[in-house]
Amino acid sequence: MSTPSLSTTRIHIFGHSSALPAEIAHALGGLCNQSTHSECDVAIFAVNPAHGIDSETISQWEALNDSLVPRLLVVTGLDESEADFDDAVLLANRVFDQTVTPFLVLHDDAGQACALISLQDLTITDYSTNPPTHRDSDAEHKTLVSEFHEEYLETLSMMGEDGFAAGLLFPAIPVWLDRNIGIDIVENYINRL
Length: 193
Prior knowledge:
With 193 residues, the protein is α/β, with parallel strands linked by helices. It has a domain at 10-105 and 155-191: Rossmann fold. The chain has six helices and ten strands, in the order βαββαβαβββββααβα. It has helices at 19-27, 55-63, 85-95, 139-144, 146-159, 183-191; strands spanning 10-15, 33-34, 42-47, 71-75, 99-100, 103-107, 113-118, 123-126, 133-136, 170-174. The strands form two sheets. Strands 2-1-3-4-10-5 form a six-stranded parallel beta sheet, with helices on both faces. It has a four-stranded antiparallel beta sheet with strand order 6-7-8-9, with no helix packed on it. Strand 7 (113-118) and strand 8 form a beta hairpin.
């Protein structure tokens, strides 16, 4: 039996604005099969911290609880406001379920998101280069994220490596659509199913 690819995975994208799901589907190569939420293999919840999470989106999240549909939280709008990835994760933890953050955002000297650091292996994906480059993090980065790293590994240990596919672990991924930041990570999660 072959594994479903991004093009055959039934995906439903939820979001506060009507344009956001289409933008995310486009960023994923337009390969999303925008199925109904009751028949989807994975649900992506797009949250912009500047706009919050509306009650309809919360209801849609809750409707998927019984069926254990794998869910990703995609945090957008990192370039638009003072609100940031951490704000969105805190909000999602209050209104959805407890999420995990497998990646944290790194900023350049101008304060713009430019890279993500993996809390699993502490590698950095630098999106300021084309294509993105991967490298080991510096000692300073490792020190700064050490508590988050330990917390993430502990959560993975408790939920198991297949926690996401089982619909029990809800990764929150920072995404900047115009710069393709995090899109590859979202694709990797979808391809795990």
